[in-house]
Amino acid sequence: MPDSSLLRALAQSLLAGEPSVEHLAAGCGRTLGRPWRWLRPLAKRYLDQFGRGIRPRQRDVVQFLKNDSGFKRAQSKYFSQLSVSNWLSEPQPMQPVAAGKTWDVPAIETVGDLANWLGLDTGELRWFADLKALGCKTNRPRLGHYHYRILAKKDGGIRLLEVPKPRLKDLQQQILAWILAKIPSHSAVHGFVKKRSIKTFAAPHVGRRVVLRMDVGDFFPTFIGARIQSLFRTLGYPEPVADLLGGICTNATPREVWSEISFATDSTRLSNARRQYSRPHLPQGAPTSPALANLGCYRLDCRLAALAKSAGATYTRYADDLAFSGDKEFEKRAERFGLHVASILREEGFAVRHRKTRIMRQGVRQHLAGLVTNERLNVQRSVFDRLKATLTNCARWGPESQNRERHPQFRMHLEGRVAFVEMINSTRGKRLRTIFKRIQWPG
Q1: Per-residue model confidence (pLDDT) at position 2
Q2: How far apart are CA 387 and CA 94, in angstroms?
Q3: pTM for the complete prediction?
Q4: Between 240 and 139, whose confidence is greater?
Q5: How many Å apart are CA 167 and CA 55, to the nearest integer?
Q6: 222 to 21, 56, 72, 173: CA distances (angstroms)
Q7: Helix (H), strand (E) at residue 443
Q8: Cβ neighbours of residue 127 under 8 Å, at least 6 residues apart?
Q9: Among residues 28, 284, 384, 386, which one has the fewest Cβ atoms lying within 10 Å of its Cβ?
Q10: CA–CA separation, 298 vs 275, rounded Å?
Q11: For residue 92, what pLDDT is reported?
Protein backbone atom coordinates (compact mmCIF):
# COMPACT_ATOMS: atom_id res chain seq x y z
CA MET A 1 0.00 0.00 0.00
CA PRO A 2 1.48 3.41 -0.97
CA ASP A 3 2.45 5.76 1.82
CA SER A 4 -0.50 8.04 2.71
CA SER A 5 1.61 11.21 2.70
CA LEU A 6 2.87 10.35 -0.80
CA LEU A 7 -0.71 9.88 -2.00
CA ARG A 8 -1.85 13.16 -0.48
CA ALA A 9 1.09 15.08 -1.97
CA LEU A 10 0.51 13.66 -5.46
CA ALA A 11 -3.21 14.33 -5.20
CA GLN A 12 -2.46 17.90 -4.16
CA SER A 13 -0.18 18.35 -7.19
CA LEU A 14 -2.75 16.95 -9.59
CA LEU A 15 -5.51 19.17 -8.19
CA ALA A 16 -3.34 22.29 -8.28
CA GLY A 17 -1.95 21.79 -11.78
CA GLU A 18 -3.28 23.22 -15.03
CA PRO A 19 -5.28 20.59 -16.92
CA SER A 20 -2.58 19.46 -19.37
CA VAL A 21 -0.50 16.31 -19.35
CA GLU A 22 2.80 18.19 -19.47
CA HIS A 23 1.93 20.58 -16.65
CA LEU A 24 0.56 17.88 -14.36
CA ALA A 25 3.51 15.57 -14.96
CA ALA A 26 5.95 18.41 -14.26
CA GLY A 27 4.13 19.35 -11.05
CA CYS A 28 4.19 15.75 -9.79
CA GLY A 29 7.88 15.54 -10.72
CA ARG A 30 8.62 18.56 -8.53
CA THR A 31 6.70 16.94 -5.69
CA LEU A 32 8.75 13.76 -5.97
CA GLY A 33 12.01 15.60 -6.70
CA ARG A 34 12.48 13.90 -10.05
CA PRO A 35 10.66 13.80 -13.46
CA TRP A 36 9.84 10.09 -13.48
CA ARG A 37 8.89 8.78 -16.95
CA TRP A 38 5.74 7.09 -15.61
CA LEU A 39 4.28 10.43 -14.43
CA ARG A 40 3.22 11.52 -17.93
CA PRO A 41 1.02 8.41 -18.52
CA LEU A 42 -0.33 8.83 -14.98
CA ALA A 43 -1.28 12.45 -15.72
CA LYS A 44 -3.02 11.36 -18.93
CA ARG A 45 -5.06 8.74 -17.07
CA TYR A 46 -5.98 11.35 -14.44
CA LEU A 47 -7.25 13.73 -17.13
CA ASP A 48 -9.16 10.93 -18.83
CA GLN A 49 -11.03 10.31 -15.58
CA PHE A 50 -11.44 13.81 -14.16
CA GLY A 51 -10.60 16.27 -16.93
CA ARG A 52 -14.10 16.64 -18.39
CA GLY A 53 -16.20 16.76 -15.27
CA ILE A 54 -16.35 18.79 -12.10
CA ARG A 55 -13.28 19.39 -10.01
CA PRO A 56 -12.87 16.21 -7.91
CA ARG A 57 -12.43 16.04 -4.17
CA GLN A 58 -8.97 15.21 -2.84
CA ARG A 59 -10.21 11.91 -1.45
CA ASP A 60 -11.42 10.93 -4.93
CA VAL A 61 -7.97 11.64 -6.39
CA VAL A 62 -6.31 9.65 -3.60
CA GLN A 63 -8.63 6.74 -4.37
CA PHE A 64 -7.79 7.05 -8.07
CA LEU A 65 -4.08 6.76 -7.24
CA LYS A 66 -4.70 3.76 -5.01
CA ASN A 67 -6.54 1.97 -7.81
CA ASP A 68 -4.26 3.00 -10.68
CA SER A 69 -2.32 -0.05 -11.92
CA GLY A 70 0.44 2.05 -13.47
CA PHE A 71 1.08 3.87 -10.20
CA LYS A 72 1.03 0.57 -8.32
CA ARG A 73 3.71 -0.85 -10.64
CA ALA A 74 5.87 2.28 -10.29
CA GLN A 75 5.47 2.28 -6.52
CA SER A 76 6.43 -1.39 -6.33
CA LYS A 77 9.43 -1.01 -8.64
CA TYR A 78 10.82 2.19 -7.11
CA PHE A 79 9.57 1.76 -3.55
CA SER A 80 12.76 2.87 -1.84
CA GLN A 81 13.20 5.90 -4.11
CA LEU A 82 9.74 7.41 -3.86
CA SER A 83 9.25 10.11 -1.26
CA VAL A 84 7.84 13.61 -0.99
CA SER A 85 10.54 16.15 -1.75
CA ASN A 86 8.35 19.24 -1.97
CA TRP A 87 4.89 19.91 -0.55
CA LEU A 88 2.97 22.59 -2.39
CA SER A 89 3.01 25.81 -0.41
CA GLU A 90 0.75 27.77 -2.75
CA PRO A 91 -3.04 27.40 -2.56
CA GLN A 92 -4.93 25.51 -5.23
CA PRO A 93 -5.80 27.87 -8.10
CA MET A 94 -9.25 28.44 -9.55
CA GLN A 95 -10.08 25.70 -12.06
CA PRO A 96 -13.53 26.16 -13.60
CA VAL A 97 -14.92 23.79 -16.21
CA ALA A 98 -14.14 24.77 -19.81
CA ALA A 99 -17.40 26.69 -20.28
CA GLY A 100 -16.78 28.61 -17.06
CA LYS A 101 -13.56 30.31 -18.09
CA THR A 102 -15.51 33.33 -19.30
CA TRP A 103 -17.60 33.66 -16.11
CA ASP A 104 -16.66 36.78 -14.20
CA VAL A 105 -16.70 35.24 -10.72
CA PRO A 106 -14.28 36.35 -7.97
CA ALA A 107 -11.16 34.25 -7.56
CA ILE A 108 -11.22 32.85 -4.00
CA GLU A 109 -8.53 30.23 -3.47
CA THR A 110 -8.22 29.81 0.30
CA VAL A 111 -10.47 29.72 3.34
CA GLY A 112 -8.83 32.94 4.53
CA ASP A 113 -9.60 34.62 1.21
CA LEU A 114 -13.25 33.57 1.51
CA ALA A 115 -13.48 34.90 5.07
CA ASN A 116 -12.01 38.24 3.99
CA TRP A 117 -14.33 38.43 0.97
CA LEU A 118 -17.35 37.92 3.20
CA GLY A 119 -16.06 40.27 5.92
CA LEU A 120 -15.74 37.51 8.55
CA ASP A 121 -13.02 35.84 10.53
CA THR A 122 -12.50 32.13 9.88
CA GLY A 123 -14.32 31.12 13.07
CA GLU A 124 -17.43 33.06 12.05
CA LEU A 125 -17.18 31.65 8.52
CA ARG A 126 -17.17 28.06 9.79
CA TRP A 127 -20.04 28.84 12.18
CA PHE A 128 -22.24 30.18 9.38
CA ALA A 129 -21.29 27.30 7.05
CA ASP A 130 -21.94 24.72 9.80
CA LEU A 131 -20.41 21.84 7.82
CA LYS A 132 -20.93 19.45 10.76
CA ALA A 133 -24.64 20.34 10.95
CA LEU A 134 -24.32 21.30 14.62
CA GLY A 135 -27.30 23.64 14.25
CA CYS A 136 -29.47 20.63 13.50
CA LYS A 137 -28.50 19.03 16.80
CA THR A 138 -28.89 21.98 19.16
CA ASN A 139 -32.11 22.63 21.05
CA ARG A 140 -31.39 26.34 21.38
CA PRO A 141 -33.17 28.16 18.52
CA ARG A 142 -31.34 31.42 19.18
CA LEU A 143 -28.11 29.78 18.02
CA GLY A 144 -29.70 28.74 14.71
CA HIS A 145 -29.46 30.70 11.48
CA TYR A 146 -33.05 30.31 10.24
CA HIS A 147 -36.66 31.07 11.08
CA TYR A 148 -39.09 28.26 10.19
CA ARG A 149 -42.70 28.08 9.06
CA ILE A 150 -44.50 24.83 8.20
CA LEU A 151 -47.27 25.01 5.58
CA ALA A 152 -49.77 22.43 4.38
CA LYS A 153 -49.91 21.67 0.66
CA LYS A 154 -53.24 21.21 -1.09
CA ASP A 155 -52.42 17.56 -1.82
CA GLY A 156 -51.79 16.82 1.87
CA GLY A 157 -48.03 17.22 1.72
CA ILE A 158 -45.78 19.48 3.78
CA ARG A 159 -43.83 22.56 2.74
CA LEU A 160 -41.21 24.06 5.03
CA LEU A 161 -40.21 27.70 4.64
CA GLU A 162 -36.70 28.36 5.96
CA VAL A 163 -35.92 32.06 6.11
CA PRO A 164 -32.32 33.00 6.96
CA LYS A 165 -31.69 35.47 9.75
CA PRO A 166 -30.28 38.88 8.71
CA ARG A 167 -26.54 38.19 8.97
CA LEU A 168 -26.68 34.92 7.05
CA LYS A 169 -29.06 36.46 4.52
CA ASP A 170 -26.53 39.21 3.84
CA LEU A 171 -23.83 36.61 3.14
CA GLN A 172 -26.14 34.70 0.82
CA GLN A 173 -27.10 37.86 -1.06
CA GLN A 174 -23.41 38.63 -1.59
CA ILE A 175 -22.83 35.13 -3.00
CA LEU A 176 -25.90 35.55 -5.22
CA ALA A 177 -24.90 38.97 -6.57
CA TRP A 178 -21.20 38.35 -7.16
CA ILE A 179 -21.04 34.65 -8.02
CA LEU A 180 -24.33 33.00 -8.95
CA ALA A 181 -25.75 35.93 -10.93
CA LYS A 182 -22.67 35.87 -13.17
CA ILE A 183 -23.47 32.40 -14.52
CA PRO A 184 -25.93 32.12 -17.43
CA SER A 185 -28.99 29.92 -17.02
CA HIS A 186 -30.26 27.46 -19.60
CA SER A 187 -32.44 29.11 -22.24
CA ALA A 188 -35.43 26.94 -21.21
CA VAL A 189 -35.40 28.29 -17.63
CA HIS A 190 -37.78 31.14 -16.83
CA GLY A 191 -38.11 31.10 -13.05
CA PHE A 192 -35.97 33.52 -10.98
CA VAL A 193 -34.02 34.66 -14.06
CA LYS A 194 -33.57 38.32 -14.96
CA LYS A 195 -35.82 39.49 -17.84
CA ARG A 196 -37.77 36.22 -17.76
CA SER A 197 -41.02 35.55 -15.94
CA ILE A 198 -44.14 33.44 -15.70
CA LYS A 199 -45.22 35.17 -18.93
CA THR A 200 -42.14 34.09 -20.89
CA PHE A 201 -42.51 30.61 -19.38
CA ALA A 202 -46.04 30.14 -20.75
CA ALA A 203 -45.85 32.19 -23.98
CA PRO A 204 -44.04 29.56 -26.14
CA HIS A 205 -46.98 27.17 -25.58
CA VAL A 206 -49.79 29.45 -26.79
CA GLY A 207 -52.00 28.01 -29.54
CA ARG A 208 -50.45 24.53 -29.59
CA ARG A 209 -52.47 21.40 -30.27
CA VAL A 210 -51.34 19.75 -27.03
CA VAL A 211 -49.62 20.95 -23.86
CA LEU A 212 -48.01 18.53 -21.41
CA ARG A 213 -47.50 19.83 -17.87
CA MET A 214 -45.41 17.95 -15.29
CA ASP A 215 -44.37 18.78 -11.74
CA VAL A 216 -41.25 17.94 -9.72
CA GLY A 217 -41.85 16.94 -6.10
CA ASP A 218 -39.93 18.42 -3.15
CA PHE A 219 -37.86 20.54 -5.50
CA PHE A 220 -35.54 22.50 -3.18
CA PRO A 221 -34.78 19.80 -0.56
CA THR A 222 -33.83 17.43 -3.41
CA PHE A 223 -30.60 19.44 -3.77
CA ILE A 224 -28.48 18.07 -0.93
CA GLY A 225 -25.40 19.77 0.46
CA ALA A 226 -22.90 17.57 -1.39
CA ARG A 227 -24.55 18.44 -4.68
CA ILE A 228 -24.26 22.17 -4.00
CA GLN A 229 -20.63 21.86 -2.93
CA SER A 230 -19.98 19.98 -6.17
CA LEU A 231 -21.56 22.86 -8.09
CA PHE A 232 -19.18 25.38 -6.51
CA ARG A 233 -16.25 23.13 -7.46
CA THR A 234 -17.60 23.19 -11.02
CA LEU A 235 -17.31 26.98 -10.90
CA GLY A 236 -13.61 26.47 -10.18
CA TYR A 237 -13.37 26.86 -6.41
CA PRO A 238 -10.93 24.61 -4.52
CA GLU A 239 -12.51 21.98 -2.31
CA PRO A 240 -12.21 23.78 1.07
CA VAL A 241 -13.69 26.98 -0.38
CA ALA A 242 -16.46 25.15 -2.28
CA ASP A 243 -17.45 23.24 0.85
CA LEU A 244 -17.82 26.44 2.88
CA LEU A 245 -19.74 28.25 0.14
CA GLY A 246 -22.06 25.26 -0.09
CA GLY A 247 -22.46 25.22 3.67
CA ILE A 248 -23.52 28.87 3.76
CA CYS A 249 -26.18 28.18 1.12
CA THR A 250 -27.63 24.97 2.63
CA ASN A 251 -29.29 24.06 5.90
CA ALA A 252 -30.05 20.99 8.03
CA THR A 253 -33.36 21.51 9.84
CA PRO A 254 -33.48 20.83 13.63
CA ARG A 255 -35.89 18.06 14.56
CA GLU A 256 -37.70 20.16 17.16
CA VAL A 257 -39.02 22.41 14.37
CA TRP A 258 -41.54 19.70 13.53
CA SER A 259 -43.06 19.82 17.01
CA GLU A 260 -44.53 23.19 16.04
CA ILE A 261 -46.70 21.80 13.23
CA SER A 262 -50.21 23.22 13.62
CA PHE A 263 -52.27 21.04 11.27
CA ALA A 264 -53.10 17.36 11.00
CA THR A 265 -50.97 15.38 8.57
CA ASP A 266 -50.17 11.81 7.70
CA SER A 267 -47.54 10.34 10.06
CA THR A 268 -45.63 8.75 7.17
CA ARG A 269 -45.38 12.06 5.33
CA LEU A 270 -44.25 13.81 8.48
CA SER A 271 -41.59 11.17 9.10
CA ASN A 272 -40.36 11.44 5.50
CA ALA A 273 -40.21 15.24 5.77
CA ARG A 274 -38.22 15.08 9.00
CA ARG A 275 -35.72 12.72 7.39
CA GLN A 276 -35.42 14.69 4.16
CA TYR A 277 -34.97 18.09 5.80
CA SER A 278 -32.55 16.82 8.47
CA ARG A 279 -29.77 16.48 5.88
CA PRO A 280 -28.17 19.63 4.42
CA HIS A 281 -30.33 20.90 1.55
CA LEU A 282 -31.33 24.07 -0.29
CA PRO A 283 -33.70 25.97 2.03
CA GLN A 284 -36.83 27.39 0.44
CA GLY A 285 -36.64 30.99 1.57
CA ALA A 286 -32.91 31.65 1.11
CA PRO A 287 -32.06 34.17 -1.65
CA THR A 288 -29.44 31.82 -3.14
CA SER A 289 -31.68 28.75 -3.43
CA PRO A 290 -33.50 29.54 -6.71
CA ALA A 291 -30.28 30.37 -8.58
CA LEU A 292 -28.49 27.29 -7.22
CA ALA A 293 -31.46 25.08 -8.11
CA ASN A 294 -31.45 26.44 -11.67
CA LEU A 295 -27.72 25.81 -12.02
CA GLY A 296 -28.12 22.37 -10.47
CA CYS A 297 -30.77 21.56 -13.11
CA TYR A 298 -28.56 22.52 -16.05
CA ARG A 299 -27.88 18.96 -17.18
CA LEU A 300 -31.55 18.07 -16.68
CA ASP A 301 -32.61 21.06 -18.79
CA CYS A 302 -30.15 20.07 -21.53
CA ARG A 303 -31.51 16.53 -21.63
CA LEU A 304 -35.17 17.59 -21.62
CA ALA A 305 -34.60 20.28 -24.27
CA ALA A 306 -32.88 17.72 -26.51
CA LEU A 307 -35.68 15.20 -25.92
CA ALA A 308 -38.30 17.81 -26.77
CA LYS A 309 -36.45 18.84 -29.93
CA SER A 310 -36.28 15.22 -31.10
CA ALA A 311 -40.06 14.98 -30.67
CA GLY A 312 -40.81 18.28 -32.39
CA ALA A 313 -41.86 19.89 -29.11
CA THR A 314 -41.05 23.03 -27.12
CA TYR A 315 -39.77 22.86 -23.52
CA THR A 316 -39.72 25.47 -20.76
CA ARG A 317 -39.31 25.25 -16.98
CA TYR A 318 -40.36 27.56 -14.15
CA ALA A 319 -38.81 26.20 -10.91
CA ASP A 320 -40.51 22.81 -10.42
CA ASP A 321 -43.09 23.27 -13.23
CA LEU A 322 -42.18 21.64 -16.57
CA ALA A 323 -44.07 22.42 -19.77
CA PHE A 324 -43.90 20.76 -23.20
CA SER A 325 -46.06 21.54 -26.22
CA GLY A 326 -46.32 20.62 -29.85
CA ASP A 327 -48.58 20.09 -32.80
CA LYS A 328 -50.12 17.09 -34.53
CA GLU A 329 -47.13 14.71 -34.41
CA PHE A 330 -46.34 15.48 -30.77
CA GLU A 331 -50.00 15.02 -29.87
CA LYS A 332 -49.82 11.39 -31.00
CA ARG A 333 -46.90 10.57 -28.71
CA ALA A 334 -47.58 12.83 -25.71
CA GLU A 335 -48.32 9.95 -23.29
CA ARG A 336 -45.17 8.02 -24.20
CA PHE A 337 -43.15 11.24 -24.20
CA GLY A 338 -44.26 11.90 -20.60
CA LEU A 339 -42.88 8.51 -19.56
CA HIS A 340 -39.49 9.40 -21.07
CA VAL A 341 -39.49 12.71 -19.19
CA ALA A 342 -40.29 10.94 -15.91
CA SER A 343 -37.44 8.49 -16.54
CA ILE A 344 -34.94 11.33 -17.09
CA LEU A 345 -36.14 13.09 -13.96
CA ARG A 346 -35.57 9.96 -11.89
CA GLU A 347 -32.11 9.47 -13.40
CA GLU A 348 -31.25 13.04 -12.39
CA GLY A 349 -32.41 12.45 -8.81
CA PHE A 350 -35.86 14.09 -8.93
CA ALA A 351 -39.29 12.77 -8.01
CA VAL A 352 -42.32 13.25 -10.27
CA ARG A 353 -45.70 14.22 -8.83
CA HIS A 354 -47.72 12.09 -11.23
CA ARG A 355 -51.03 13.36 -9.88
CA LYS A 356 -50.22 16.80 -11.24
CA THR A 357 -49.27 15.59 -14.73
CA ARG A 358 -51.71 16.92 -17.32
CA ILE A 359 -52.03 16.34 -21.06
CA MET A 360 -54.18 19.24 -22.30
CA ARG A 361 -55.49 19.21 -25.84
CA GLN A 362 -57.21 22.08 -27.64
CA GLY A 363 -60.68 20.94 -26.60
CA VAL A 364 -60.00 21.77 -22.93
CA ARG A 365 -58.57 24.76 -21.12
CA GLN A 366 -54.79 24.66 -21.46
CA HIS A 367 -53.15 26.39 -18.52
CA LEU A 368 -49.64 26.74 -17.12
CA ALA A 369 -48.82 28.32 -13.75
CA GLY A 370 -52.28 29.87 -13.62
CA LEU A 371 -52.17 31.33 -17.17
CA VAL A 372 -54.45 30.19 -19.99
CA THR A 373 -52.59 29.39 -23.24
CA ASN A 374 -55.28 28.13 -25.66
CA GLU A 375 -55.51 31.01 -28.17
CA ARG A 376 -53.66 33.83 -26.43
CA LEU A 377 -51.96 34.29 -23.10
CA ASN A 378 -54.48 35.27 -20.46
CA VAL A 379 -55.26 35.12 -16.77
CA GLN A 380 -57.92 32.62 -15.73
CA ARG A 381 -61.42 34.08 -15.83
CA SER A 382 -62.11 33.08 -12.22
CA VAL A 383 -58.97 34.89 -11.03
CA PHE A 384 -59.92 38.03 -12.94
CA ASP A 385 -63.50 37.98 -11.67
CA ARG A 386 -62.48 37.56 -8.01
CA LEU A 387 -59.96 40.40 -8.22
CA LYS A 388 -62.49 42.64 -9.96
CA ALA A 389 -65.06 41.93 -7.23
CA THR A 390 -62.52 42.66 -4.49
CA LEU A 391 -61.57 45.99 -6.09
CA THR A 392 -65.20 46.94 -6.62
CA ASN A 393 -66.05 46.20 -2.98
CA CYS A 394 -63.01 48.18 -1.85
CA ALA A 395 -64.26 51.16 -3.87
CA ARG A 396 -67.78 50.83 -2.41
CA TRP A 397 -67.20 49.86 1.21
CA GLY A 398 -63.57 50.74 1.86
CA PRO A 399 -60.42 48.60 1.58
CA GLU A 400 -60.52 47.38 5.20
CA SER A 401 -63.75 45.52 4.48
CA GLN A 402 -61.90 43.29 1.97
CA ASN A 403 -58.58 42.77 3.78
CA ARG A 404 -59.70 39.47 5.31
CA GLU A 405 -56.18 38.01 5.38
CA ARG A 406 -54.81 41.08 7.19
CA HIS A 407 -52.11 42.02 4.69
CA PRO A 408 -49.97 44.69 6.37
CA GLN A 409 -49.50 46.45 3.00
CA PHE A 410 -52.92 45.78 1.45
CA ARG A 411 -52.68 48.61 -1.07
CA MET A 412 -49.36 47.33 -2.41
CA HIS A 413 -50.75 43.78 -2.43
CA LEU A 414 -53.71 44.77 -4.61
CA GLU A 415 -51.65 47.00 -6.86
CA GLY A 416 -49.24 44.13 -7.46
CA ARG A 417 -52.10 41.85 -8.49
CA VAL A 418 -53.45 44.51 -10.86
CA ALA A 419 -49.97 45.03 -12.36
CA PHE A 420 -49.71 41.28 -12.94
CA VAL A 421 -52.95 41.25 -14.95
CA GLU A 422 -51.74 44.31 -16.89
CA MET A 423 -48.56 42.43 -17.80
CA ILE A 424 -50.52 39.46 -19.15
CA ASN A 425 -53.56 41.19 -20.69
CA SER A 426 -53.38 44.96 -21.05
CA THR A 427 -57.10 45.35 -21.87
CA ARG A 428 -58.28 43.52 -18.75
CA GLY A 429 -55.58 45.19 -16.71
CA LYS A 430 -56.76 48.63 -17.79
CA ARG A 431 -60.29 47.84 -16.54
CA LEU A 432 -58.94 46.78 -13.16
CA ARG A 433 -56.68 49.82 -12.93
CA THR A 434 -59.69 52.11 -13.46
CA ILE A 435 -61.51 50.50 -10.52
CA PHE A 436 -58.35 50.58 -8.36
CA LYS A 437 -58.04 54.34 -8.85
CA ARG A 438 -61.55 54.84 -7.38
CA ILE A 439 -60.57 53.30 -4.03
CA GLN A 440 -60.32 55.77 -1.16
CA TRP A 441 -57.30 54.80 0.92
CA PRO A 442 -57.05 55.98 4.56
CA GLY A 443 -54.46 58.57 5.48
Answers
A1: 60
A2: 52
A3: 0.90
A4: 240
A5: 30
A6: 37, 21, 39, 22
A7: none
A8: none
A9: 386
A10: 26
A11: 87
